[in-house]
Each structure stands twice: as structure tokens, then as C-alpha cells.
Amino acid sequence: MASAVPTIYALATGPPPSAISIVRIAGPLAMPLGAAMTQAREWVPRQLVKRTLRHPCTREVLDDALLAYFPPGQSFSGDATLELHLHGSPAVVRDVLAALTDARALYDAPLRPARPGEFTRRAFEQGRLDLTACEALDALLHAETSAQRRLAQQAGGGRQAQLYEDLRTKLLRSMAHLEAMLDFSDEDDIDARLWDSVRAQVADLRAYLAKELQLDVPASQRSYVDVAQHGVRVALYGRPNVGKSSLLNQLVRRDAAIVSSHPGTTRDIIEASMELGGFRVTLADTAGLRESHDEVEQLGMQRTHMYVDAADLAVLVCTPDEWASLPPAGPTFLTPSEVERVGLRRASGAWDGVPDLVLINKMDTAPVAPIPKRHAGHPCHVWHASVAHAQGIDQILEDLGTWVAQRYATEARTTPLVTQARHRHLLLDVVTCLDAFLAMPPDADIVVAAEELRRAAQLLGEITGHTLSSHDVLGEIFARFCIGK
């Protein structure tokens, strides 16, 4: 009887041309296809062997390739798998994939191209990976920065799943204690002690989840996971013609913003990204701040205030003359009029007018007397640069990278509990169940109380995939994968 499990195949490496391209075949027909294309009858598992690869129907030579066979249970997906290590030629890859399509005429069993993420989905369905490991693998494949790579690796390998399993075990233990209360329902002393013990355990678990979900933290305080995934936002702001656009172009090494001697050229937010300190850093050139009756320029300045208010790092760009016009103590003690004059104000009004960093540009026009790098009373670092002459740019990049790494990388030492929006949504439902339990009085119905904990345990199981209320979530997760993984 023909196997109902389809054999699937796909290019597992990037698009050619390349030095090597790997085509992966997984399923019951992996070994028969290998035999049909090479005439080899015996395979040594997990070893590369050189073979002449032929079309299974026409016998045309397709390539001299290296082949590796993985028996069932010893491959990534858990299926019998054959990997074809080809020359990375567009023609070779195209013709080999076409030959596999033609081979469908030779077998009664299903044979077809793989769908996105299908190899990984099979690994999940055969118990080789849990859902958090699958999501971590997807994150690793899409990682563009070192921080994203580290985050994906910390969540993978079953480490994140173990966190959830530990939480689930604690809930199951609490449920067992509740069931014990049913056995000792005639002994009030034991009931009270067990109830207090279970309630304390659930309260501790609830406090842990609140911390991981940052439920009691202001929305403006970003988590390490958020920063690693989405990057750091740096606002470059100040008066017109202080060199903000030129600075952006120098930092990202390309012409991202238009540079002109005409004041007010930049009227919208211009963003450009790069990697610094292992994180994606998005630098934003903003509209210059000044008195203006131009409606479009006013809108641009409003956007500047909003962006600076939301940015992780605010960098004031000014000239030596502007800096010299401030009080000797520096930006820490500016009067409201002085704050307004140089744009040292965030839209929320909660900021004290102190930038995170200051860049004094156009130092080639400055007097010989040195300008202090720091001002007493505030750790506001001051850079000196001449952006037009590319002087000081390397130091700015080095300092920015150090600042980002010191501020965020120290939080990357432990396995994160929440790395996906799916995790957060399910954990919020868990917290709701725990809150419902904690709100119950000591004389509450034990069966009803245990049901809240059972529901919470089920939700934790949904995160790892051990319990699923709907298989639709699998389609959503694996659709994000590339074909061939």
C-alpha cells in the first residue's frame, strides 16, 4: 500500500549562483530517489559520498554531487532525508528540481515541493522541536544583528521551553495540593494550611509573570527583548543648518538625507539604520527647531518634538557659538527661554531639557580655547566634530556603540521568557486565570478554583505546543519560514 506521507523536496540554501547549493529531500521516497538518480543501492548514514547525479527518467547527467543520507529519526525533520550538495549553478539547481518533479511518474506515493517551513513543521509534529524552538529557529534565520542572533539562540535549544515547563509543573503541583484538600475536607486545620500554601505559590508565580511581562513598568521603558528585536532609536535634533543631515550621511556612510545651505531643508523625519554595539540603531534626521510661520515647517517641527520624545537617545547638534551662548554650567540649568532657543525640549514636557548626548559641530570655526567635554552636575557627554571634514565621526560611532552595548547588552545573560507576541497574549490570559484564583475566598469551591489553575496550565502548554486549542496557530507560525527549512 502506498505511503500517505508525502515526500517533499526544496532548495535548502540561498538562491544561486553560489559555491554550493543543497537540495533537501525528506520522506519515504528519499532513499528510492537517491537510488534512481545515482544507481547506489547501499547508503552509509550521515556521510558525504560523491556520486554522479542523473535524471531518474532520461538518465541525463545533471551534476557531480556530494550526497548525504539520514535515516528516519536521525534527520532534522525526523523523516528519512537525502541531501544533494550541488554546484551552485542556477541551471544545475533548476534542472535537479525539475527532475524531482518528473520523478513523480515513477512512484505511486506522493512526491511534491515543500511548503514554507514544512521541514520544521514535521520536526515539531514528530516531537523533535517544540513551538518555542521553532519560533527561535525562525528568529535566527531572520536575524540581522548580533543582538537578534543572541536572543534567538537563548530562546532555542529547548531552553525557553524548559522555563514554561517549569511554570506548568508548579501549577500542576498546586492543583495536586487542591485535590488533597478534597481528601482532607473534614480537617479544617489541614485545609487552611494547604489553601494558604497554594495561594502563596500562585501569588509568587503571578508576581514572576508580572515582572517578565513588565506589567508594572512604564510603557516608555523598553525591555531588552524589544530593543534586540526592533533596535534603538536615536534622534538628531537642533536648530536649522547645524549639520544634522550631514551628520546622518557621515554616520551611515551614504547620502540618506538631502544637504543644503538653505535653512529648513529637512521638513520630515529621515531615518537610516546601521548596526552598533550588536543592535540595530535607527538614526533620525529631524526638522530644525526655530521660530517659523511656514505651516509645513511647523508640522515638521511638531514631528521633531514627537520623535525626540519617543527616542531612546536624544542627541543635540549645535554649533560652537550656540554652545558658548549657554550658561557656564551647561544644559543642566537652562532657563525655559534658553531651552526653547536651542530646542532642548521633549514634547511630553516631562523631560528636564537635558539631552542624552551633545555634538558640537563645525569645530573648524571654533575659537582656539577648548570646550569642556562634560559639565558639572550632569553626565551629559559632549562630542566635538567637524562633520563637513569628516572629523570626529569615528569617535561618535565608537561612543554610540559603547553606549548601546552598556545600556542594553547587560540584560542579555538569561533565557528570556517572552520573545513573541503570541507568548505575551497567552501569558496575559494566564495572569487573568491566576488573578481569578487569587480573588477567591478560602471557602471557595475547590473544583472551581482548580479549574482556573488547570486553564492556566493549558495556556502554558499552548505556548510550547504541548496543548493546542487550535491548529490554526501552526499555519501562522510556519508560514513565516522560508521554503527549504
UniProtKB/TrEMBL annotation:
<feature type="domain" description="G">
    <location>
        <begin position="233"/>
        <end position="321"/>
    </location>
</feature>
<dbReference type="InterPro" id="IPR025867">
    <property type="entry name" value="MnmE_helical"/>
</dbReference>
<feature type="domain" description="GTP-binding protein TrmE N-terminal">
    <location>
        <begin position="7"/>
        <end position="128"/>
    </location>
</feature>
<dbReference type="InterPro" id="IPR006073">
    <property type="entry name" value="GTP-bd"/>
</dbReference>
<dbReference type="Pfam" id="PF10396">
    <property type="entry name" value="TrmE_N"/>
</dbReference>
<dbReference type="InterPro" id="IPR027417">
    <property type="entry name" value="P-loop_NTPase"/>
</dbReference>
<dbReference type="InterPro" id="IPR018948">
    <property type="entry name" value="GTP-bd_TrmE_N"/>
</dbReference>
<keyword id="KW-0342">GTP-binding</keyword>
<dbReference type="InterPro" id="IPR005225">
    <property type="entry name" value="Small_GTP-bd"/>
</dbReference>
<dbReference type="InterPro" id="IPR027368">
    <property type="entry name" value="MnmE_dom2"/>
</dbReference>
<protein>
    <submittedName>
        <fullName>Mitochondrial splicing system protein</fullName>
    </submittedName>
</protein>
<dbReference type="GO" id="GO:0002098">
    <property type="term" value="P:tRNA wobble uridine modification"/>
</dbReference>
<dbReference type="GO" id="GO:0005525">
    <property type="term" value="F:GTP binding"/>
</dbReference>
<dbReference type="Pfam" id="PF12631">
    <property type="entry name" value="MnmE_helical"/>
</dbReference>
<keyword id="KW-0547">Nucleotide-binding</keyword>
<dbReference type="InterPro" id="IPR027266">
    <property type="entry name" value="TrmE/GcvT-like"/>
</dbReference>
<dbReference type="InterPro" id="IPR004520">
    <property type="entry name" value="GTPase_MnmE"/>
</dbReference>
<dbReference type="InterPro" id="IPR031168">
    <property type="entry name" value="G_TrmE"/>
</dbReference>
<keyword id="KW-0819">tRNA processing</keyword>
<dbReference type="GO" id="GO:0030488">
    <property type="term" value="P:tRNA methylation"/>
</dbReference>
<comment type="similarity">
    <text>Belongs to the TRAFAC class TrmE-Era-EngA-EngB-Septin-like GTPase superfamily. TrmE GTPase family.</text>
</comment>
<dbReference type="Pfam" id="PF01926">
    <property type="entry name" value="MMR_HSR1"/>
</dbReference>
<feature type="domain" description="MnmE helical">
    <location>
        <begin position="131"/>
        <end position="482"/>
    </location>
</feature>
<dbReference type="GO" id="GO:0005739">
    <property type="term" value="C:mitochondrion"/>
</dbReference>
<dbReference type="GO" id="GO:0003924">
    <property type="term" value="F:GTPase activity"/>
</dbReference>
